């Protein structure tokens, strides 16, 4: 039986990684709500965020805060390119759902291989944003990076909530989510909104990747596991509001890291999959309701 | 004898009653119609009878058996076969193949039979093709049989759906607004076909919006309004029924009234 | 029975006959594939390996086409069953000294059983959920093939897998391997045709056309989907085993997620839901390896790009081109 100390330590770890899953989940929801498409290449944005930031930091000596910003913008641009060159042509033609999913998977493979060919397949990491730490509370160690993740995550969710509720563009995106045809009739440029959604979503993924890289690492292949966990978090949260996505992520992160204490790290993916199947079978609308849509 | 007996059938979506306490009996061999304005709950009624939707209360009896909770495919296997208001053609299959799928219930054999092809199976496949051809001839689509079903004009897609349903040799054929979207000439042809199907011994239950068509061909008519049955009787009785005129005929343009 | 006159317009002369079986264009494509096989036999070399792999993937794709093409469902994790087939055959032959053929059949049985118990709950899902659940299935299997080292030997993989054969007769030469594989493809194709053109196959294709319509005519939709899933798994498993026997070496990478993408590329390039699509797609796409030699990474990039271009610009694949030409001619 694991000790209380072990369990509380893994609770902290779980919340940390869960916040990351939450950010990715919000990225999934932003695109899904605006277009009805689940972008299976979402995880690749996480990978790119870390890789770009690392390259800027180490190869060009740009300070981490600036590297992070540039990397986020670059990844958002990649998201826009994916939308314009892959998603939009298929979306216009009313391509079947599975073809679009497949296309996003192909995009993931393409980007991964291009990264291997250009930046290599070596895992990379860089120091935490704030040196020192970890903070010790009893036996539980909390790395400083945890507070960065928590702070940035909270800030982003707050900003997104404001964006969706207060700004014209945010409201237009929400209108697309509720009824695309009606939104188009109201004069909302739906395709441009999709570009915004992809940029936003890719940017969110990048931030997640930049934040997590110091505590783990980044490499070309981390996209898939992060993508899947983010998707599961989005399903738990129910593809609804940013807050729900973040809570879904934290729940998954905690379940996963507590379960690892009991079963061992090799079971990480199997645990995620089990959570996924349980949620899909018993809570098809997510734990917090959210938008019900024809999948 | 009643082939279909519906008692107190009710369906609520949340607080809203789409069907409220509907009872009716469809006699064997009859051509029975259910009419009502849009949103009267006709399709809900149909979906419950054919097992596509579960009922909130009430019972459905088909061919002497209670089918209220029976799964959809079993109801179909008992001989209660429906068509859809929005045509549900099998895209990517030819016109003939569409009707051949209709023979599903009237035939047997799965993967193993298809691989081994015993003589009974080959004979059956031949019969399926012949039957498909006959039925296409019956509805007048035989010279289109190799065409991709999707490429048929809308009116003919509806006829194809009727032929497909007939292929399963139903005891009771449920037609969901078969004349929707048809022009006068096509409606005329359809009416003729429905009457012929009925004359050959198949009981027909028809949901229709087109009152003129129904009063002309149906033996008996039930009228739904706001999810309730407000009248039932022969076409003449219905045409004279004050509540029906108020609720339905009054709003609709009636050509033959 | 006489028909009432309700349709005034007779069909236009030379109306597009729907290719309910083959059209001439598709037969032509098959002939080209056969000629390529002959060329490989004559010239040998690298083309021989390329065509061997093409045949193996063709078998995989014929099965996948049942589930994705005819039934209109999606599984992004069929590589899981190829993995079971490949490792099953490798372990049974190398560790336990089984004959290749019984090992292949036993692995198929195991795959079919897995497909049955996994498919039963999973196929209730729809759309994105089904896609993600099946995708995870492939990933989990890949993970297991790496982690469960006591059985799979992890990244090391299995080497020294014997070639196909029955009793004393084994297929040693590369040319005979290709011939055997081609015969097996033909056999698998023939079986698939028999299943397609029957009550069962029509039921499957009806589901892809309209689930409600099929259900109304008494097709037991969940059961049919499950059977199609199992059929796809059986073909995938056989392909996985054949890979092991042909190359003699397997590792987790062979059956990883990239395999899913590659086989999808083949199926979509050839034409999903068409009769000859799986074979044509497998052959054409495998030739890419001949064009893009370089490292495996460049090949993956090529696959991804070809898949994207196909999905965006030619979603019906090569096999449907014949119908397209005919339609164009009519319009002219």
From N to C, what is the helix and strand string of chain A? HHHHEEHHHHHHH
Beta-strand percentage range of chain B: 15-25%
What is the string of SSEs of chain B from the N terminus onward?
EEEHEEHEHHHHEHEHEEHH
User: CATH superfamily of one domain in chain B, please?
Assistant: P-loop containing nucleotide triphosphate hydrolases
Radius of gyration of chain A: 19 Å
Large-scale geometry of chain B: globular
Treating each run of at least 4 consecutive H or I residues as one helix, how many helices of chain B? 10
- The number of E-state strands of chain B comes to 10
Largest sheet of chain A: 2 strands, antiparallel
Provide the spatial order of strands within the biggest beta sheet of chain B.
6-7-8-3-9-10
Discrete helix count of chain A: 11
Strand fraction of chain A equals under 5%
The CATH architecture name of one domain in chain B reads: 3-Layer(aba) Sandwich
- State mean pLDDT of chain B (0 to 100 scale): 87
Describe this structure in words.
The complex is a heterotrimer of chains A (295), B (257) and C (332). Chain A is an all-alpha fold and 295 residues long. Chain A has a domain at 4-16 and 24-145 and 166-228. Chain A is built from 11 helices and 2 strands. Chain A has helices spanning 4-35, 42-59, 64-92, 97-119, 144-166, 168-178, 180-185, 190-212, 223-237, 242-263, 268-282, and strands at 135-137, 140-142. Chain A is globular. Chain B contains 10 helices and 10 strands. In chain B, a hairpin with a 2-residue loop joins strand 4 and strand 5. The longest helix of chain B has 21 residues, at 119-139. Chain B starts with a strand and ends in an 8-residue tail after the last helix. Chain C has 332 residues and is an all-alpha fold. Chain C has helices at residues 24-43, 46-70, 79-95, 100-122, 127-147, 149-152, 174-196, 199-209, 211-216, 221-247, 257-270, 277-291, 296-313, 321-331; strands spanning 165-166, 169-170. A two-stranded antiparallel ribbon of chain C has the order 1-2. In chain C, a hairpin with a 2-residue loop joins strand 1 and strand 2 (169-170). The radius of gyration of chain C is 21 Å and the shape is globular. Classes of the chains: A mainly alpha (295), B alpha/beta (257), C mainly alpha (332). Chains in contact: A-C, B-C.
